[in-house]
């Protein structure tokens, strides 16, 4: 009897996928269970894997203990403005590096890449002093404004994307009377959706999870973003870690939403290239 | 022109603009309405969960009592608070008064960020009324801070485990050797054998005799009661490579080798290095006062007593006096207002009592610490007196301006000895050299 080789391959690949998905999901499931325990169960040895009973009120407790909605809103503002800034400024700078001719183009680009190698800690104090003089301490401004000034990683990513677009598109646009700005906006940007989606997710995740900058620039509790708001819940002496886990899981939700939303661009990007 | 497109663009622009405004519009509000004669001071503290609410209550009361002073708070989670503070000091925007972990007081003092409070303390506070003022003294005798709450260590023991093993509870007659002997009977492996029975497997322990962690609740306490330590009295010379320390290290390594004490890798198996005692996996711990919180939360049946003596009868209890520091750059008016806050904190009985109710620290004011309210509150441990008795032989963790740096060097080397990656002699010798280098680099450049 002949077995269908395709079916067999499919079964094997499903087994592999299921197995690796389980490995990836284990920490997530453990965290979910941990968030539903009492402190006693949380620390218990031997480990009690399944909470008994399930303490859903831990989540309610987190809402009661912190100003979760306010922190979430602050994080939202910072993240959205950062993503918009990154998309716009990085792609504009990248377009210039990829498609326009100007003196010292290559040396300037190497300098941009060079800034990637400066460790962020070195820049904290100078930036802090600049923002102090701008009167921007204890506001959300320092957290997003830098993204409007083009970050080197985004510039590099978008430049590579623009470089891969055939010259013919540009020439055709020119013939139809497009200015460089119009070519950038109407021709190049729509063709680089996958890279823009990548940049969106990267910026979103970095900003959403950022701890150092908000902790340094924000002083009033009502301006805290989620990560430091969540960390503030734990005492200096005694963690009540189960609440922290619950809060951390809740703050994951927006990232998941953004990921599901932008995922289709990743898939599309691979299949829709080339001239028709 | 396509009107729809213009509309679309306009809408998009307005949305971004609205967010922009939201992102910028957080300029400090709530300043208005104050009369100009009021002094506004900023007060920084590390967030401590529910304690934040209590702090705010006490601030409100203070403002009621002192209508001419307004307090603006700045807080952040513990670790980030100190990162931020370092940046603020560099940028000249540090709070006028802040809560410092006791181990960082000298760092701020020697870097010129803390105001010398000697004169004000002599003038306004009766030193005999308070615990811990001397723990913030610099080597030249100046006072740099006033304690906010005190952490001092005792020996915590799980009564149920002692009862079950038929071992007498520890008392003030215990030496570290007694502790190890009792610990052996309380250490049980997966097959149910104790550490003093043959066939006991020290690599598969189910219940430890003593949980041993890092500096305060680990090596420093043993080293000092063996007559050793890390720095000499000047706090600028390492005394790590000494026979006393070697003896203490031999004691610790033997305890870990036999499975009685947790070694650094054992602690990895726990949710946190703090959890063996509250999860009833260790019969004893060296614990600062705040450790009662977790033990009470999980409902351990425990008590405390003073820490054991060294071989020569010497006893040592590590102390960390978390303290208020006044900014050296604060204007006279603000510094004086900040001093009012510090005085209010330590001298008002109500404030001391309310803070003590949180159960995080030993009160600074002796009359409150020695009152029934603290000693016989009904919460465990019953023998809270042990914490107060420990002040007689209490000392700091050789705190100086580069404390964090040398603790890391020492800890790394000691851990190598604990995990048998290096001999005790090698570990002490290397720690000594590395710590001396840290000290020289800082003090020779001053």
From TrEMBL, chain A:
Compartment list: Cell membrane
Major subcellular location class: membrane
Taxonomy, superkingdom: Bacteria
Entry keyword set: Cell membrane, Membrane, Transmembrane, Transmembrane helix, Transport
SUPFAM superfamilies, per the entry: MetI-like
Gene Ontology annotations for the cellular component aspect, listed alphabetically: plasma membrane
Protein's name according to its UniProt entry: ABC transporter permease
Lineage: Bacteria, Bacillati, Bacillota, Bacilli, Bacillales
Automatic annotation (TrEMBL), chain B:
Pfam families: SBP_bac_1
InterPro entries assigned to the protein according to its UniProt record, in alphabetical order: Bact_solute-bd_prot1, SBP
Keyword annotations from UniProtKB, A to Z: Signal
Signal peptide: 1-18
Source taxon at top rank: Bacteria
Protein name, UniProt field: ABC transporter substrate-binding protein
């Amino acid at each position: 009897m002949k077995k269908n080789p395709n079916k067999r391959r499919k079964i094997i690949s499903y087994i592999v996928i299921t197995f690796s998905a389980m490995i990836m999901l284990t920490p997530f499931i453990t965290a979910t269970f941990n968030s539903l325990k009492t402190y006693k169960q949380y620390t218990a040895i031997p480990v009690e894997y399944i909470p008994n009973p399930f303490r859903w009120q831990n989540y309610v407790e987190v809402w009661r203990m912190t100003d979760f909605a306010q922190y979430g809103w602050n994080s939202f503002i910072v993240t959205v403005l950062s993503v918009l800034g990154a998309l716009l400024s990085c792609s504009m700078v990248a377009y210039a590096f990829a498609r326009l001719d100007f003196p010292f183009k290559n040396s300037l680009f190497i300098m941009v890449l060079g800034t990637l190698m400066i460790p962020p800690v070195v820049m904290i104090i100078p930036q802090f002093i600049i923002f102090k003089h701008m009167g921007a301490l204890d506001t959300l401004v320092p957290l997003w404004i830098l993204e409007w000034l083009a970050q080197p990683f985004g510039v590099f990513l978008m430049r590579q994307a623009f470089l891969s677009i055939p010259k013919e598109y540009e020439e055709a646009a020119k013939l139809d009377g497009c200015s460089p700005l119009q070519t950038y906006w109407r021709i190049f940007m729509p063709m680089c959706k996958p890279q823009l989606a990548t940049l969106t997710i990267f910026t979103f995740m970095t900003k959403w999870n950022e701890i150092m900058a908000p902790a340094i620039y924000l002083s009033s509790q009502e301006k805290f973003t989620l990560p430091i708001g969540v960390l503030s819940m734990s005492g200096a002496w005694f963690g009540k870690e189960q609440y922290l886990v619950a809060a951390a899981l809740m703050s994951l939700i927006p990232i998941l939403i953004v990921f599901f939303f932008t995922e289709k661009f990743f898939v599309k990007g691979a299949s829709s290239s080339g001239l028709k | 022109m396509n009107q729809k497109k213009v509309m679309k663009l306009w809408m998009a622009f307005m949305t971004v603009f609205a967010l922009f405004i939201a992102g910028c519009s957080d300029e400090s509000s709530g300043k208005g309405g104050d009369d100009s004669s009021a002094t506004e001071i900023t007060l920084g503290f590390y967030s401590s969960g529910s304690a934040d609410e209590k702090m705010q209550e006490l601030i409100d009361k203070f403002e009621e009592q002192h209508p001419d002073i307004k307090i603006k708070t700045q807080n952040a989670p513990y670790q980030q608070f100190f990162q931020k503070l370092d940046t603020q000091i560099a940028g000249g925007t540090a709070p006028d008064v802040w809560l410092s972990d006791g181990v960082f007081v000298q760092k701020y003092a020697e870097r010129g960020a803390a105001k010398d409070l000697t004169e004000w303390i002599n003038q306004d506070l009766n030193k005999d009324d308070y615990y811990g003022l001397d723990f913030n003294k610099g080597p030249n005798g100046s006072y740099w801070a006033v304690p906010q709450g005190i952490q001092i260590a005792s020996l915590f023991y799980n009564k149920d485990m002692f009862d079950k093993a038929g071992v007498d509870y520890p008392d003030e007659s215990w030496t570290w050797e007694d502790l190890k002997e009792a610990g052996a009977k309380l250490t049980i492996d997966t097959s149910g054998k104790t550490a003093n029975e043959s066939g006991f497997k020290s690599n598969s322990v189910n219940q430890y005799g003593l949980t041993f962690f890092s500096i305060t609740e680990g090596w420093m306490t043993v080293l000092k009661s063996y007559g050793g330590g890390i720095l000499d009295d000047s706090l600028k010379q390492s005394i790590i490579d000494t026979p006393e320390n070697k003896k203490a290290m031999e004691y610790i390594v033997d305890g870990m080798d036999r499975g009685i004490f947790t070694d650094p890798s054992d602690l990895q198996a726990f949710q946190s290095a703090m959890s063996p005692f509250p999860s009833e996996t260790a019969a004893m711990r060296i614990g600062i006062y705040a450790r009662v919180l977790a033990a009470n939360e999980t409902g351990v049946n425990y008590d405390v007593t003073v820490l054991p003596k060294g071989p020569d009868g010497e006893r040592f209890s590590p102390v960390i006096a978390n303290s208020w520091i006044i900014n050296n750059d604060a204007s006279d008016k603000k510094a004086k207002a900040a001093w009012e806050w510090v005085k209010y904190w330590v001298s008002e009985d109500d404030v001391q009592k309310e803070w003590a109710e949180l159960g995080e620290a030993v009160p600074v004011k002796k009359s409150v610490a020695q009152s029934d309210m603290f000693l016989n509150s009904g919460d465990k441990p019953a023998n809270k007196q042990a914490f107060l008795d420990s002040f007689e032989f209490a000392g700091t963790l050789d705190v100086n301006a580069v404390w964090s740096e040398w603790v890391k060097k020492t800890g790394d080397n000691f851990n190598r000895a604990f995990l048998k990656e290096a001999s005790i002699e090698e570990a002490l010798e290397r720690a000594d050299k590395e710590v001396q280098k840290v000290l020289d680099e800082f003090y020779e450049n001053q």
